[in-house]
Structures are given as C-alpha cells and as structure tokens.
C-alpha cells in the first residue's frame, strides 16, 4: 500500500503560488489567536490590511440593506408575509419578481445563469456604455475568479500559449496560469505614470515571448488596478485595443473595481466594452465584474459575470459546454448580481437608505486612501502613487543594503522581511510586493484602504518605518 505523497500530485498544481493568503496571512491569524488567548503582544489588535475582503471580521464594512433584504426573502419566501408591511415595497416587489423568474433557489439554474438576471446584466451594461449588450453573451459566475479560470483554461493549449499579464498583478493570474501550464508574458506597469499600462512594455513582452517561441494569445488588463489602484484614461485604452487588433490578442478586462472610484468627476471609469464599440473594433473581449468589491463587498456569496464581445458562436458554445460541467453558479451569488446591476433608483422607497449606505462607503474609502498616501509619501524612503480607484495602495520602499543582506541570510525577499517585522511589531498585516511582482531590485507592499481606525494604524506604521530604517543603519 502506497500512501499518497505530495510527490504524487499534479506538478502544475504544486507550482501554484498565492501570496494574498500566504505566509503573512497565516502569521496574522496566529497572532490573532494569541491575542485572544491573552498573550502579551506589542499591539492590541491585528489589522488585516492584506486582503480586499470588506466584510471580513475586523474590517466590518456593513452589507447593503437592500441586497440583504432581497437575499433574505429569496432564501425564505414565507418571510414575505411577515415583512410586507414593514420592509420597503420595492424590496418585496423585487423578491416576488425574482421568485417568479427563478422558483426555488435550491434548484440548479441554467448553466450560464438565470436568463432573467442575464437580461438585467445586459441592460446595466447598455446603460453604462451606451451600446447594446446581448444576454446570450453573458455568463454568470461564482465570482470573477471562476470566469478568469474558465477563460484561461480554454485559451491555453499545449503549444506554449503566452498570456500577457501586468506586473504587478493580482496573483489569481499567475496562479491560474501555473495551474493550466500557460506561459506568463509579464509586462511592467509604469509607476511614474500612476501605474498606467505602457504600450511599449507590452510590445517588448510580446517580442520577448515570440523570440522564445511563445505565442501571445491574450492580454490581461486590470482596471481599476489591483494592487496599484490605478485607473486607465480613454486614450491609453484606445491604444490597448489597437494593439490587440495588431497582434490578434484576446483582451481579458478585469473590471471588478469599476464602482470603486475615489473622485469619479475627475477620474471616471470607462469600460473596455465601451471603447471596443466606440472604435468599432473587431477584437475579442472578455469583461469581468463581481459582487465582491464595489460597495457590496459580498465576497463570500461568490457572484459575478463575464461578457464576451465579438466571439464566434462556436467558441461561445465551448464556453457553455464547460460551464455546464459545473452545472450552475451559486444562486445566492446570482441574486447578488441582480441587486448589483439593479440597485434602488431615486424615488423608490429603498433609495434613501441605499444612498446613505453607499455614500458612507465611498467617502470612507476615498478619505482613507488620500490620508494614507499623504502620510506614506512624507516618510523617508517611501513613495506612493495616489490611487484614484480600487481598494489599495502600493507604496515603494527604498531599503538600505543591510536589509537586503539580512533578508538574503534568511532566504526571504527584503519586502517580506519588512512586512514580517511590521506585523510582529504593530499587528498590521500587508502583502509584500514580491507576491504581485515588481522590477528586479525594487521593494513594495500592498495595503488595503478598508480598515477602520486609519489614524491609529498609520501612526503605528510611521513609527515602525522610522525604527526599522534606523535599526538597519539608515538610508
Ligand atoms: C483584480 C481582481 N480580479 C478578480 C478578483 C476575484 O474576485 P471574485 O471574488 O469575484 O472572484 C479579485 C479579488 O480580489 C481582484 O482583485
């Protein structure tokens, strides 16, 4: 009898790395348990600035009332009779309408998602972009991750398929590429231009790949960016689309942060769908959205969608076949998507509370982002791009050579050493830049702007930074 060992497992799976839930997150959990068990640590609480999970314990972004009321009535239809005179009438109407379209949420739905909800998604896209959207081009998913995984799975062939990914990137992409044995073709984002996409860098990555016999098949763009918080302007987006035309690249547009804008009047979001239609471009585009981010933050419900633009019917049929294997996305996530694309409108009974709740989330995020970037920028050896969108900041650290030497000695990167000491001394958990990728010799870390009590932990972070630099001999 031979017991299964790691060496018996699929080597592609063993190559998968996922820093957001890696060493730092595990250590943070351990420290939290120690605090709960009464251990004496140099801090009173662990601050999870490592993950964009707004409703997580300790971050505590409240769920939107409208979303949860509709969800509750879908979970337990007899509740309608108990609340119909107490809850807003638009909640009850929405739940009745969805119950009529779906029936019980305990049943499998259509594999691409409930047709009624896909129609709502198409209408949302049309209103956002001013161009038509076909519900048949929309696939509801268990979060954006499931859609990314599906597309990478079908795009990667055994013949050295190159996928252009931004550096820094959200590690879902490198992890999924490792899983399906695709070849990442990394291109660097431009930090001096607010982490914008540099066409020159993408061209260089294509050339590099081609030299090695890797055929570039798709280009991943994350906009607004994770971990950078960047936001692309229209001109850059148009040149990205032209570049995809030139190289016949499928554009994978990860737009899960499209509602997280800190100054939408001066920095608006444009979707790639809008740009592709405006340019009348034939490129194949897959656009992702999710209920995990934005103001909903319903990460645990697992809901999202992708829209395919300019795809051949037979390619869409393959996607349909593949989603059928998984039967259907979770119904609770699909209902979350419906509430996201059809929020209460001005004049409806739920609107005043919805507006109050979402304004509070937007303004807290914008304030924290601004304050944290300002304070980080005033620290010696730290520079931080002020981010116009998403939930993150990605400061750059200038570290003395002695930090690099000390890190080498323990087999870690300098930014990991920094993040580990930060966690040990302040309880603040961030993700080292090496988890997202960065230029050789550079050090960054990502912190989220979701934690309440920003003043307190930014002060702790400042004190730590100064002590850390002094301890290693100064800059
Ligand atoms: C850029 C990006 N894409 C996709 C995801 C995954 O989202 P979901 O929870 O919808 O799978 C995340 C999550 O943090 C993300 O940052």
Bound molecule kinds, no repeats:
pyridoxal-5'-phosphate
Outline? globular
User: What are the low-pLDDT stretches, counting only 5+ consecutive residues below 50?
Assistant: none
Distance between the termini: 59 Å
- CATH topology group of the largest domain: Aspartate Aminotransferase, domain 2
> What's the overall average pLDDT, rounded?
93
Major sheet description: 7 strands, mixed
* Total helical elements: 17
Strand order of the largest sheet: 2-8-7-6-5-3-4
Broad CATH class of the largest domain:
Alpha Beta
Q: Any idea what the radius of gyration is? A: 23 Å
Describe this structure in words.
Belongs to the class-I pyridoxal-phosphate-dependent aminotransferase family. Alanine aminotransferase subfamily. One of its GO terms (molecular function) is transaminase activity. This is Aminotransferase class I/classII large domain-containing protein. Keywords: Aminotransferase, Pyridoxal phosphate, Transferase. Homodimer. The chain has 475 residues and is an alpha/beta fold. It has two domains: 6-61 and 356-471, Alpha-Beta Complex (Aspartate Aminotransferase, domain 1); 98-341, Aspartate Aminotransferase, domain 2, CATH 3.40.640.10. The protein has 17 helices and 14 strands. It has helices at 11-14, 23-36, 65-75, 79-83, 89-102, 115-129, 143-155, 172-179, 199-211, 234-247, 272-278, 313-325, 331-341, 351-377, 401-409, 414-426, 454-471; strands at residues 47-48, 138-141, 161-167, 183-188, 215-222, 250-254, 285-290, 304-309, 382-383, 392-393, 396-397, 428-429, 431-432, 443-448. It has a seven-stranded mixed β-sheet, with helices on both faces. Strands 9, 10, 11, 13 and 14 form a five-stranded antiparallel β-sheet that branches. A two-stranded parallel sheet has the order 1-12. It is globular. The termini are far apart. The mean pLDDT is 93. The structure holds pyridoxal-5'-phosphate (PLP). Residues 52, 143-145, 170, 172, 222, 226, 254, 256, 290, 292, 299, 304 line the site of pyridoxal-5'-phosphate (PLP).
